[in-house]
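Sample intake sheet
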Amino acid sequence: MIMVIFIFSCGPSDRETNGHDSTSDQFIEILNLQNDSLTFKNIKAFEQRAIQKLQDLKDYFEILSDSTIEKAFKKQALDMVRGLFASGDNTITFKLRENQEITALKVDTFFTSLQNDNYGVLTLQIYNVSVTNTIKKLDDAEYKGAIRFRLFVFEKQGKTKALLNKTNMQCDIIAKKVKKKFGNETKQVWEVFLGNIYQVQ
């Protein structure tokens, strides 16, 4: 499992054209992320970053549902899941099986119950991912957007793989300022997170 680290930098052609090296380009983008508002480039990059975080969540989902994986590794995976979301109050609202009642659960509660339920290994497949609401500024402290996708939930029991549910989902995208270390300095910069995840028509 590899968490993708988001780094703003120009490609080789940009460096050759502008005469900048990657370090100076990255420094400029860090300064941009300290501004009061996000640039168009920041917003588009954050939307792609949110899609990657959704894919990361899918991978952690499988780890946390697998009863053969050690608890210590699951604890680490759950910590990584928490870091994907804007807040501990964010909720996940969908049913693993078609015949279940749909319930909104906070992220920690959802993934704790996932480990306690009597499932085989659960795997998710995500298709048709698109930004349905581009990230827009709500106030000085927050931006919000949304991505929509088609979700398939499978259960693996031994060599058998069964489809439990398929549904349309939406995930809020939240951008807010957080403290990050750059060398010996700590700066307040914009970062993007997942918000509430829920079923849609």
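Comment: The chain is about 35% helix and 40% strand. The CA atoms of residues 33 and 116 lie 40 Å apart.
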